[in-house]
Design a protein that fits this description.
single chain; alpha+beta; about 15% strand; globular
Length: about 400
């Protein structure tokens, strides 16, 4: 691919940057990454404010077909994600915009598209993803929560866990076992449903630092209209694989780390130890330089995935590669940053907290992305089997 930008893309990039820079000035101190929006009211209100600002410009429907209110290109989506990540701006529902919308465009019926896409583009509806179960995470095909067809409805029963933002979401999408006796990978259904439907109970799973981001969701005879299906009954696994590619290809997390590294370098330039700025320490300089190189490699990988998506040539391996590299890098960066700043890196909500207390949350949460969206161990298997053609162990 050509990594250069056209004059039009340069102008669009400036437009995205200017808006995000302005929105960043309105960011409350409680907003420290997109997941923090689920934890507290100021961050949640900020997320909704940004969503409306993007929606009125048509930026929540970038790269969609015009008949569904879309405009722009895949590269526009990438450039907006870059600007949002760099300036730490909320407003793009990772589940509704980033995952579900492109999946609906690729796999849903015309009726489902016309019903569900406009509220997503308007920023009116927030979504959650009901995926993992207590005994089905990486091996998602082993899930046990059922969706049994009865007339014009599916009846859902079971439990989902680690559901991000379920307590905030208006609607949810998930995969369920539609044929308990069917063979694996050919017995699942992908459904959309209102989170206020009777029979749905959401219970919080407090994070290690007390944040309320994740949840258990219990489904007790939940009635979902059969018209809310995406794809075909018993063929939900194909929709799962389609969505997973969109889920793993975002650049905003990479750009957030780039900005955080810039802030860490600035901190090292003004913070002295033994009479010298930290930036003069050769060990710290070396580790910062190594991280900068790795971040540039991650950004290049994300560009490549976006280009492959644009040309409809992306494979499961391509999405897995950028997901593994970026999430592993997130762990290494969090470790580096907390090493550099020392014990104060574990402090937040204090005048002693460096970088506005960001590192405390970063260190707690960095491992999450190596597990979510399919563990990195599973992603490496996908790379080995589908990308490199290596044999499976027996």
């Amino acid at each position: 691919m050509d990594f250069g930008f056209t004059d039009e893309q340069i102008a669009r990039r400036k437009e995205f940057t200017d808006v995000c820079k302005d929105l960043a000035k309105k960011r409350p101190i409680e907003y420290v990454g997109f997941e923090s929006a689920y934890d507290n009211e100021p961050a949640w209100e900020y997320d909704k404010l940004c969503a409306k600002e993007f929606a009125k410009r048509g930026w929540l429907a970038l790269e969609w077909p015009a008949e569904y209110g879309g405009s722009g290109t895949m590269m526009d989506r990438v450039l907006l994600s870059e600007a949002r990540g760099y300036y730490g701006v909320a407003g793009v529902d990772v589940f509704g915009i980033g995952m579900l919308a492109p999946t609906l465009l690729a796999a849903a019926s015309e009726g489902v598209k016309k019903r569900f896409l406009p509220p997503i583009a308007a920023g009116d509806v927030h979504w959650c993803e009901l995926w993992s179960e207590p005994n089905a995470g990486s091996d998602l095909a082993s899930l046990t929560t059922t969706a049994i067809r009865k007339g014009d409805e599916y009846i859902l029963n079971g439990q989902k866990t680690w559901t991000t933002g379920a307590h905030r979401a208006d609607w949810g999408f998930g995969v369920f076992k539609s044929d308990p006796e069917g063979r694996p990978h050919h017995n699942l259904v992908f459904l959309l449903f209102d989170m206020k439907t009777p029979g749905i109970e959401v219970r919080p799973i407090p994070f290690t630092n007390g944040a309320h981001i994740y949840n258990e969701v219990y489904l007790d005879d939940v009635h979902v209209p059969a018209e809310n299906i995406v794809g075909q009954e018993n063929e939900g696994w194909a929709v799962v694989n389609l969505l997973a590619g969109f889920e793993r290809s975002s650049i905003d997390a990479i750009m957030a780390m780039i900005r955080q590294l810039e802030d860490l370098v600035a901190y090292c330039n003004v913070t002295k130890r033994n009479g010298q700025p930290l930036s003069k320490d050769p060990l710290i300089r070396n580790r910062l330089a190594q991280t900068a190189c790795e971040l540039e490699a991650a950004r290049t990988l994300a560009y490549r995935v976006a280009d492959l998506q644009n040309r409809k040539e992306m494979s499961l391996m391509d999405a897995s590669a950028v997901k593994v590299f970026a999430s592993d890098l997130g762990e290494r960066y969090a470790s580096l940053a907390t090493d550099v700043v020392g014990p104060y890196g574990q402090v937040k909500s204090s005048r002693w907290a460096p970088l506005n207390g960001l590192l405390e949350s970063m260190y707690h949460e960095c491992f999450v992305f190596t597990i979510s969206m399919g563990t990195n161990e599973i992603q490496k298997n996908i790379i080995a089997w589908y990308g490199l053609g290596l044999p499976r162990m027996k």
